[in-house]
Amino acid sequence: MKMKRRSFLKACGVLTGYAMLSVNIASEAFAAAMSFVALRQKSVYATDANPKIYKFRKSQNNPMITKIYNKDSGFLHDGPCGHKSHELLHTEYIDRSAKLSALKAKGYKFNF
């Protein structure tokens, strides 16, 4: 492809302009995103510090939780780390991949 010097300089000027414009647009977009993050962070902290929304900042200060764990009449009377609370409030992982593979080998099809 043959290009005259004037056409080459014009093309270089256009490409340089596009490069500078894209850098400027990218920096403006990044600045806008960071200002949004700062605004969101400020609103989250302000909401979290509002005592009208969060009366009990710690779960151990919540009267319903203390009533549940009460030693005399509470449902989970054996304490927060007791057997009953562990049984009801914690989850366990069961590996079912072998059964799933066996069903797939038999020809079952799944939609997930």
From TrEMBL:
The keyword Phosphoprotein belongs to this UniProt entry's keyword annotation: no
Signal peptide positions (record): 1-31
Gene Ontology, cellular component aspect: periplasmic space
Secreted recorded as keyword: no
InterPro entries assigned: Fe_hydrogenase_HydB, Fe_hydrogenase_ssu, Fe_hydrogenase_ssu_sf, TAT_signal
Pfam families associated with the record: Fe_hyd_SSU (PF02256)
GO molecular function: electron transfer activity; ferredoxin hydrogenase activity; iron ion binding; iron-sulfur cluster binding
Keyword entries, A-Z: Iron, Iron-sulfur, Metal-binding, Signal
Occurrences of domain Iron hydrogenase small subunit (ranges): 31-97
Protein name according to UniProt: Ferredoxin hydrogenase small subunit
